[in-house]
Design brief:
Elements lengths: L3 E2 L6 E6 L10 H9 L3 E6 L12 H18 L4 E4 L11 H14 L3 E5 L13 H16 L19 E5 L6 E4 L4 H9 L2 H6 L8 H13 L8 E8 L1
């Protein structure tokens, strides 16, 4: 299967993921290509990742991981970063989460919304986790909520019907791809900015940014003519 080029008829994107590092494990290279092309990209983090480092209590880990996320964003040209402060590890799908994301969409007014895989499994078959599933489902619904002035009235300002695409990174069923060969070093730098988190992972494959990202990008690039390294997305027109 040949993946299609990622749509280019958009100017502003909002990335909405559950945790610091979620976008960096594959998607940040695409963001670097977009910002290099003059696209505006902002990030919305549902949590601060405060439950993600076993050796650090949440009160210490949260601010640390926020700082690492901001550095990761800077590496790919993103300066707008917000955190919703939903509790890490126990993110619940429901009206409060949908309201918060819809309000952010109304504030940022993107034509592209990006989130991470919210299916049951990752490519390769490993199981996904509840925070990702609940966040992605809420993002999908919030794209519609943001455009209905009678849903969450007053949250985030006027309704916004301009979301044209929802793109999901890390999905087992990509439809489109971005060639990240020219910016691969920045994708690695973005993931490497999560120093404390990576150190806590030990010596596993996910703790080595260059090796992990290259192996994933090479697999996707097999479906992208002319690319050596690529990031895949499942793209939905809304």
């Amino acid at each position: 299967m040949t993946l299609q080029p990622f749509p280019d008829d958009w100017s502003r994107a909002l990335v909405v993921v559950a945790h610091p590092d979620d976008m960096e494990y594959g998607g940040a290279g695409a963001v670097a290509r977009w910002t290099d092309a003059g696209k505006e990209v902002a990030y919305l983090l549902v949590t601060r990742g405060e439950a993600g480092i076993d050796s650090l209590p949440p009160v210490e880990a949260g601010p640390l991981r926020e700082g690492e996320q901001r550095a990761a964003c800077a590496a790919v040209g993103v300066s707008e970063v917000e955190f919703l402060d939903h509790p890490d590890g126990v993110v619940e799908y429901g009206l409060p989460l949908r309201r918060d994301i819809a309000a952010a969409i109304r504030r940022f007014r993107p034509d592209l919304v990006v989130t991470a895989n919210f299916g049951d499994r990752w490519p390769g078959g490993s199981l996904n986790m509840a925070d990702h599933v609940h966040t992605g489902r809420a993002v999908l619904d919030a794209c519609r909520d943001a455009g209905n002035r009678w849903v969450f009235p007053g949250a985030g300002g006027d309704s916004w019907t301009g979301v044209r695409y929802l793109a999901v990174v890390g999905t087992p069923q990509p439809t489109h791809a971005v060639d990240i060969g020219p910016v691969f070093d920045r994708a690695v730098a973005s993931l490497s900015a999560h120093r404390a988190y990576l150190a806590a992972l030990g010596d596993g494959g996910m703790a080595d940014p260059e090796t992990f990202l290259r192996s994933q990008a090479e697999v996707v690039a097999e479906q992208v003519p002319g690319a050596a390294l690529a990031v895949g997305f499942e793209v939905f027109a809304l």
